Amino acid sequence: MKMAKALGWVLAVFGVWEVAAPFVLGYGYTDVAAQDVVIGVIWITFGLWIALTSKGEAAKWLGWLGVIVGVWLFFAPALLGYTALTAAFWNDLLTGFAGAVVSMWAAFNAPKDAPAAPQPQHH
Hints:
The protein is an all-alpha fold. The chain is built from 4 helices and no strands. The longest helix has 25 residues, at 56-80.
């Protein structure tokens, strides 16, 4: 669980970067910036949840959802047609790939939840 928690924090940091990137890299106040802010907030939420939960199954599912978000971010420049917006293109390509990898790593490292205790049988 320690590895999954650490990866959750990393994903949250990627989310913070994705929120800040449009303004740091100079493409703020565009539709692309809005998408990046939304994705950043999603990753922050998933990352913090993974880092703070004791539920392995929840961490695993949030990790896989984080992968989907990362894959979207990776392909979004081509699908939405903003490959010419160089800063946004490279940011989303690289951050999307890295976020998907970290999320997948967290999903694979999420511990299995302990099985429920058997209920006593009364005869």
